[in-house]
Specification:
six-stranded mixed β-barrel, N-terminal domain of TfIIb, Dimethylsulfoxide Reductase, domain 2, binds iron/sulfur cluster, binds molybdenum atom, six-stranded mixed β-sheet, 4 domains, alpha/beta, binds ligand MGD
Length: 742
């Protein structure tokens, strides 16, 4: 008698826009081919076998009754959600006919705009044949700024690369600062490591205008006024220099402009001024600086800053990150394993991005559209031809893009042809002329880096596609065929593409940590991101540049064995002896590059665009500073349609201080209307001390179709950009709140 195993297990990785990139194992019933279980894979010590509450419910997403299973064509008015099923050949023909017509028209191919972000972070499904396709077509380029470009540029100015250490070494940190980071929710495996450090004596501090779950789980919460982090960092440096808590040897040997910086902070950022800007008491600023500067002595180990996105989503977001990045150089914390700062590790993975995306195919002079300014772009407010075709994938801009009422007005344009490729009929898909069904991570192949750990991994498909769903790569193969584009650009299989992208870069192409040069971050456009000035140091002086982070790992072993750690030393301290990949080779406290560009070469405080201190007239109408971080139950707008998760998030809420609520006759549980000149949305008031007076917090990112009133918090956000990096300013809003009356 033969006995067949009832189930098989398949290894993969969570594809969502999350630094943790968890390794997972899918159990599939071999008789039915249906996935029956998802669990964390302990083969990745960083993600340690546990998945977050969102992805613990993943089968509900994969087998959701509302999964799109066939292409659709619009039959009702835009936004109505009325469609009829069509076949793939019909869909591809409809789309390529549009592409051809527009490309041949007087407006030319730049009237076509791809719009994508990080619905999946897999190297292939995030950006490979899609990029090749639109480059070959001559479409407008998209600058993918919506998340991380402000911080990327800010880091690069000071450090020449992203702030990075091996996140696993945070276990050796003893003064841990979550700075604009809701680590417990958005980076839960790092939070676990922070707590192991805490058991060994570390103190955990959180700097956040909101008492987030991270702030609640910390030893100390510093409720900073939104958008004022640079001022706090400058005030801390004032105290460090004043009290002799700086590391003069580190500054002399490895930094540029320590004297100039010292002078600036001494004269311009005394604690009293910083207190007035940040809303933090002088005593707290003094205590924080003292503890940070004396971490070794007081807590027995180095200080570490988890820099995340909270501080970036403001008018001065790039400068905030540039400034905070100066701190570990002033104290010399970079000397120690577990000391320093972390923004992102993604560049340590030397995938061959140029092979995947083929920037050489871009026609010279092609315009770039900043994705944060979709509202403006859809209304023709930029140079060049109007946008006549929008092709959306891996993104849900009707919910996530700022200035929502103008985005939706743009989507309703009769002369706009919109394609949306997604797993579900999202808010954006509702406006599409053609909808295409996408596969989930269970149904396609991919290869993954991470922006929060050092493991590279493969995702194997575990089940057959649901219905007629197709992966992004396959759709672009079909579109390329329909356009008559060269086979050699599009015919490679996904596995072949991955194998070739994994072949590491040559030593001369790598950065000083063995990382990919500044070309593409998880969130930075290939083509418009800042590029590093040439490094004058010799290869030998740069030491690590000769290390290949993929060496010792073969594609075959990844395929067969699962997650593998990059070839980076276990006790890595990347800037222990300088080695900064800036033009000077030093940590640039003073930036000659900024001076040459006509900007202030030293860090300084840039207030938010919408700041009661600097915009009193606007604040007279709209007195409350509103921040809009994502809800713990959702991942951006993903998972809003998964019932158990939406029920956990309950309904759109806004948290406000009792002083602000009383003045407006609002009590907890009341329905309120939040508004400014850009628009309004409805929410339920939660009154309490999770925020200071003058600040309100509304969690994102609801699907509009699940809200009362059909608009989420992006109805009040603006397309104004950060100081540098072209980033979004989602947390920089003045609003008013009033009781909602029908
Ligand atoms: N559960 C869950 N996890 C996620 C996501 C998600 O949507 N849900 N999104 C993923 C993505 S795309 C990203 S980019 C990351 C984001 O990861 P984080 O940066 O951790 O996330 P946010 O919650 O956007 O912002 C962090 C904190 O910054 C605070 N903040 C707002 N303004 C300021 C400010 O001016 N200064 C300071 N110091 N703090 C401020 C907010 O209140 C918030 O608690 O998380 C990823 N992980
Ligand atoms: N107010 C406010 N707005 C924000 C933010 C905020 O904090 N506040 N956060 C911002 C940030 S940090 C980010 S990163 C952006 C995120 O914005 P988006 O990147 O648009 O993220 P999601 O909302 O998760 O939408 C991703 C979509 O991709 C789809 N998808 C997933 N996998 C695939 C696939 O393989 N193929 C295709 N074709 N589709 C797929 C999902 O189903 C989902 O609908 O939002 C930004 N918007
Ligand atoms: S969303 Fe983040 S924490 Fe949750 S399973 Fe995916 S990678 Fe892990
Ligand atoms: Mo993001």
């Amino acid at each position: 008698m033969t006995h067949t195993l009832p189930t098989i297990t398949v290894k993969g990785a969570c594809p969502h826009d999350c630094p943790d990139a968890c390794s997972w194992i899918v159990t599939v019933d071999s008789a039915t081919g249906r996935a029956v279980r998802l669990q964390g894979d302990t083969a990745n010590p960083f993600t340690d076998g546990f998945l977050c509450q969102k992805v613990a419910n993943y089968l509900d997403r994969v087998y959701h009754p509302e999964r799109l299973t066939t292409p659709l064509r619009r039959t009702g008015p835009k936004g109505s959600g009325q469609f009829e099923a069509i076949t793939w050949p019909e869909a591809i023909d409809t789309i390529t006919t549009q592409f051809k017509q527009i490309a041949a028209s007087a407006d030319g191919p730049q009237a076509i705009l791809p719009y994508s972000y990080a619905g999946t972070m897999g190297k292939l499904q995030y950006g490979s044949l899609d990029r090749r396709f639109f480059h070959r077509l001559g479409a407008s380029l998209l600058d993918r700024t919506i998340c991380a470009t402000a911080g990327a540029v800010g880091c690069d100015i000071t450090l020449g690369t992203r702030a990075m250490i091996d996140p696993a070494t945070v276990e050796r940190s003893r003064y841990i600062v979550n700075w604009g980071s809701n680590t417990k929710v958005t980076n839960s495996h790092l939070w676990a490591i922070m707590h192991r450090a805490r058991q060994a004596g570390a103190k955990i501090v959180t700097i956040d205008p909101y008492r987030s779950r991270t702030a609640e789980g910390s030893d100390w919460w510093l409720p900073i006024r939104p958008g004022t982090d640079a001022a706090l960092a400058l005030g801390v440096m004032h105290i460090l220099f004043r009290d002799g808590l700086h590391d003069q040897a580190y500054l002399n040997d490895f930094c540029l402009g320590a004297n100039e910086l010292q002078q600036r902070v001494e004269t311009e950022y005394p604690p009293e001024r910083v207190s007035a800007i940040t809303g933090l008491p002088v005593a707290d600023i003094e205590q924080f600086a003292r503890e940070y500067g004396r971490s070794q002595e007081l807590f027995g180990g180095p200080a570490f800053l988890r820099i995340n996105y909270g501080m970036q989503r403001h008018g001065g977001g790039a400068m905030a990150v540039r400034t905070v990045c100066c701190l570990p150089a002033v104290t010399g914390d970079w000397r120690h394993v577990g000391g320093g700062a972390l923004l992102s590790t993604s560049k340590l993975f030397p995938f061959d991005e140029a092979f995947l995306t083929r920037p050489d195919l871009i026609r010279p002079g092609t315009r770039t559209v900043n994705m944060t300014q979709l509202a403006d772009a859809l209304h023709g407010e930029m140079a060049g031809p109007p946008i006549r075709v929008l092709y959306v994938y891996n993104s849900n801009p009707a919910a996530v893009a700022p200035d929502q009422s103008r985005v939706l007005k743009g989507f309703r344009r009769d002369d706009l042809f919109t394609v949306v490729h997604d797993l579900f009929l999202t808010d954006t898909a509702n406006y599409a002329d053609v909808v295409l069904p996408a596969t989930s991570q269970f149904e396609h192949f991919d290869i993954h880096n991470s922006y929060g750990h050092l493991y590279v991994q493969v995702n194997h498909p575990a089940i057959a596609p649901i219905g007629d769903a197709k992966p992004n790569t396959e759709v672009f193969r079909l579109l390329a065929k329909g356009m008559g584009f060269e086979d050699e650009l599009f015919s490679m299989t996904d596995v072949e593409l991955a194998r070739r992208a994994f072949l590491s870069l040559s030593a001369s192409e790598r950065g000083p940590g063995g990382e990919v040069p500044v070309r593409e971050d998880e969130s930075t456009s290939n083509f418009t991101g800042q590029t590093s000035p040439p490094n004058p140091l010799s290869e030998a002086e740069r030491g690590d540049r000769n290390r290949n982070n993929f060496s010792g790992i073969t594609f075959e072993s990844l395929m067969a064995e699962g997650p593998q750690r990059l070839n980076v030393p276990e006790d890595w301290a990347p800037f222990a002896s300088g080695n900064f990949p800036t033009a000077s080779g030093k940590c640039e406290l003073f930036s000659p590059g900024e001076a040459a560009a006509g900007r202030d070469p030293l860090p300084y405080y840039i207030p938010p665009h919408e700041d009661p201190q600097t915009k009193p007239e606007l604040a007279a109408k709209f007195p409350l500073q509103m921040i809009t971080p994502p809800s713990p139950s959702f991942l951006n707008s993903t998972f809003v349609n998964v019932d158990v998760l939406r029920k956990k998030a309950v309904e759109p809420q806004i948290e406000m201080h009792p002083n602000d609520a009383d003045r407006r006759s609002i009590t907890s549980g009341d329905a309120v209307r939040v508004f400014n000149d850009r628009g309004s949305f409805r929410a339920k008031a939660v009154v309490g001390d999770s925020v200071k007076p003058g600040v309100v917090v509304a969690f994102g990112i609801w699907w509009n179709k699940y809200t009362d009133g059909g608009a989420n918090c992006n109805a009040i956000t603006s397309t104004a950009l950060t100081d540098q990096g072209g980033g979004a300013t989602f947390f920089d809003n003045l609003v008013e709140v009033e009781p909602f009356r029908v």
